[in-house]
Structure formats: C-alpha cells, structure tokens
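Bench log. Compound arrived from synthesis this morning; before running ITC I wanted a structural hypothesis for how adenosine-5'-triphosphate sits in the protein. Inputs:
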Amino acid sequence: MSQEPVLRMQNLTKRIGNKTIVDGVSLELYPGEVFGFLGPNGAGKTTTIRMLVGLMSISEGEVSILGTSLKKDFEEAVRHVGGIVENPELYKFLSGYQNLLHYARMCDNVGPERIDEVVKLVGLEQRIHDKVKTYSLGMRQRLGLAQALLHSPKILILDEPTNGLDPSGIREIRDHLRRLAKEEGLAVMVSSHLLSEMELMCDRIGIIQQGKLIDVKRVEEFVGTSDVNDRLTTIWTVEPLEQALEVIRSFTELQPESTSRGVEITLTREQVPKLNTRLVEAEVRVYAIHSLSKTLEDKYLEVTGGSHIA
Ligand SMILES: Nc1ncnc2c1ncn2[C@@H]1O[C@H](COP(=O)(O)OP(=O)(O)OP(=O)(O)O)[C@@H](O)[C@H]1O
C-alpha cells in the first residue's frame, strides 16, 4: 500500500511476570481498511489492544500513531484513537443524546454539530432522544461507537464489537464499520473469534496465536483459490440425474455424491469446464455450477494447526 500507515506496531511485546503474553508483534494499519485481529482464547488480542489504547504499559517495542510515538508523546498519539475495549459505559436512564453530550464535555472542541454528525454516522437519528435502557444491545453498541467517534479519531480500535449481538445486530455493526472505513477513511481494527464475521467485515486479517502474529493476509487470499491445480468442491445442478452421474463417473475416478443441493464432486479448476462440456455433449441439462471455496475457518485451522476457536 502506498499510503502512510495510521498505526505502526514494531516488535510490540508485553511481559507479565515471567510470561510473555504478546510476543514481538509488528503490523501496520492503513486508512480506509478494516483489519481483523483473529485468534483463539487467550492468544493475546485484548492485551495487544489494551496497549494500543494506553490502558496497559508496553514492555518492549514501539507503537506509533500517525507518526507519533505512543511512548514518547502519549497525549498527541492517543488523540487520534477511538476505542471500545470493555463494554461502553453508558448511563441507561439518560437518553442517547444526553450520554453523548456528557462525553462531549470531556473532549476538546466537540460541539452540538459533531454530536449530530456522529449520530448520523451510526444511524441513530430516530432514537437518539430515547432513554438508553430502551435500546437493543445493537443500538447500545452503536451509541458506544458514536461516543468513540466524537473526537474525530483516525483509527478505531474495537475489542470484540459484535460480542453478544444477534445476527441483525452483528450486521448493523458490520455495515457501520465498513462504511466508516470506506466513506470516512478511518482505519478500523476489530478483534474477534467469529470467523464468519471477520470474513464479511474485514479487508485484511492477522492471526495471533500464543502472543505471536503468525499470518497476515487479505481476506480473499485466505479464502480464495487461484491455482488451476487447486482442488475445488463443486456442486452441479443437473438433469436428468442418473445420466449426469454416469457421465461424471466416466470422467473422474472420484465418486460424485448426490446431495440435496445437487451433485457434489471434487475437481481441479481446469476440470470444471471440461466436465461441463462432456455433460452438455451427453445432453444433460446443466442449470448451475457452484464452487465451495475454502472457508476462512478451514484456513484458520490450517494456519493454527487446528487450534480451537472460541
Ligand atoms: N494481568 C495479567 N496477568 C497475568 N496474565 C494475564 C494478564 N492479562 C492477561 N493475561 C494472560 O495473557 C493471555 C492473553 O490474554 P488476552 O486477554 O490478551 O487474550 P485474548 O486473545 O484477548 O483472549 P480472549 O479471546 O479469551 O479474550 C491469557 O493467557 C491471559 O490469561
């Protein structure tokens, strides 16, 4: 990437007693990207994030935010960071707006216009004057997000932002985070162990295990197959079925499996159009061919050697 990173970690390390909890993590985050920090329980995600937002001291290494070292000029560096690390502290008997007003007083130069702006950014216009106790968990998370955005940070760091949300709440947060990155140019870092979530939300993913960052890739590199010799699981919607199975058996030694979704067969990429031609020549009607790419979960288990996901 050609842009300057918003956040740079170099050899970030945390030791507590004789235990190394975060072990030499180096990583850069760029404007406009959603970065997923993925790892099993106890891998060191929260500890890393706590160091990044200044809730915990750094044992070794450097963190700089927009070029300012967190160690050397903490105030200036964290000015650009918005974070939700624990559950957002909200006053439930006040309205969403009153909560934001309260936090705005603690920031420099945050006036009513900025409050209106962040309310819009998280889509809470309709309910902002209702009491927080009437909000769904998803709306509370969005209010927490609005609070974290008040001082116009350049980077948002969120620890497990979708934890405890139902599918529609997860979707709301995901859509808002993606919009903040794409439209407002924020760098967004989220930690999670919800793999399917990360796949939909993030541009890049870093896997952390036992305190070490063991892999960083773009999501499509994690899930995609590109080599013609890569094997794909393909699902064929074909009629008539018996005739199709006969053609497939004569084409490959691997046994096709007839499932409710269609005929499932593992092929190399190159074989897919060839089999299609054979089927069409045999006057089998081919309605659809789907390929099931490896899920992020498969890849994750491959990379971590089968470490369990929470
Ligand atoms: N203050 C502390 N003192 C001693 N050990 C700690 C402390 N804080 C965290 N740890 C240990 O460090 C390891 C990493 O914890 P951390 O909370 O960063 O993991 P995590 O990746 O966020 O896990 P989870 O998904 O469970 O939240 C764990 O083994 C934890 O027990």
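What the model suggests: The CA atoms of residues 38 and 207 lie 5 Å apart. The two ends are 32 Å apart (CA to CA).
ITC booked for Thursday regardless.
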